[in-house]
Amino acid sequence: MSDHQHDHDHQDLPEEVQTELERLAECLGQLHDPATSLPLDELDAEIEVGFEGDTVFVGVTLGYPCASEEESWSARVHEACLPLLKGGPLGGSQLQFELFSDIPATPAGDVPGPLQGVKNIVAVASGKGGVGKSTTAVNLALALAAEGARVGLLDADIYGPSLPTMLGTEGARPQVKEQKFFVPVEVQGLQTMSLGYLMTEDTPAVWRGPMASGALNQILTQTLWGELDYLVVDMPPGTGDIQLTLAQKTTLAGAVIVTTPQDLALKDAIKGVEMFRKVSVPVLGIVENMSLHTCTNCGHSEPIFGSGGGERIAADYDTRLLGQLPLAMAIREGTDSGLPSVAAEPQGEIAGFYRDIARRAAAQIWLSVGDELLPEIEIS
Ligand SMILES: Nc1ncnc2c1ncn2[C@@H]1O[C@H](COP(=O)(O)OP(=O)(O)OP(=O)(O)O)[C@@H](O)[C@H]1O
């Protein structure tokens, strides 16, 4: 997958070939995009078909990073095209397929300079502490990057910045430029910034009120983020003033709400959904963490905290369940040792859960940004 378009030389194709290519494009428009469950022709997807020599070229451009999906798209596109390649004007041709990603930007008003190159700011929030919000944020950021996006991660958890521990960057100090800008610390392919990088022994362990939101605002707007497709913000837990200020001050592309299946956590997750709704920030979906416990001895999985909670609130509040994570020792060990699951084993099962969540969340941003509903079909 790449993020630039394949250029075919325009040529005068015989009319029957043109017609056949149009049929092909129509056929491709029926294919369902797995991250949104919508057919391509209901999305702002670009379908490009071309013919040169004895090869039919097909390019599909989606508005979210989807590197790990190229193979399955290729298989489905081949299957869909097969009948047209068997006979008729395109009979006997080869098929060459490419999947592209063109990530749109959330329109933002007056953003400070350092945030101008950031296409989308995504908040990862939870109504209550300890549900695995930071673990989700860091793995989501890594998963978006693994899917091909340029990603930054801002640890805005003023109560206990955990990013340096989770990414093994304790003791890192961002460089300062022009005496007022921080240069993000690069690790595992992410641009990262954390209040933890700035804390010294003299810094109060817990910031409160205006001081906390001031510090947060400062690292958000005074970090030289550069060109990013997504800036993932690990929000402080809860739904208080700081969270509200952050949601209002930045043009958020959307919010991902993390919860565990217990009733109490679910009630707090609802407060989270309501808070973002109040300030018109799209809720991209719910991540249910610690959903199932898998016994390390026998491999049996059980919903020890109850089941179906995340799905229920997603349905009740007209949003979606982006994914579920098991309560797994490997997830805890990863974040505690500085190598989160997605970085430790990018092709592993757990990384797969996070990558699915990442694609679904990013696809929701694409849907909410999409200005045109009709697909662009290009025949060359
Ligand atoms: N799915 C999981 N399986 C096992 N352990 C997990 C899982 N998710 C998170 N943890 C562990 O639970 C603890 C709390 O997670 P985390 O710090 O991400 O939560 P949080 O909601 O951000 O908490 P806080 O509100 O304190 O910042 C960590 O030790 C983390 O490694």
UniProtKB/TrEMBL annotation:
It holds the Pfam family ParA. Gene3D superfamilies: P-loop containing nucleotide triphosphate hydrolases (3.40.50.300). It comes from the Bacteria. One of its GO terms (molecular function) is ATP hydrolysis activity. SUPFAM superfamilies: P-loop containing nucleoside triphosphate hydrolases. Keywords: ATP-binding, Hydrolase, Iron, Iron-sulfur, Metal-binding, Nucleotide-binding. GO terms for biological process: iron-sulfur cluster assembly. PROSITE patterns: MRP (PS01215). PANTHER family: IRON-SULFUR PROTEIN NUBPL (PTHR42961:SF2). Belongs to the Mrp/NBP35 ATP-binding proteins family. Homodimer. This is Iron-sulfur cluster carrier protein. It comes from Microbulbifer donghaiensis. The lineage of its organism: Bacteria, Pseudomonadati, Pseudomonadota, Gammaproteobacteria, Cellvibrionales.
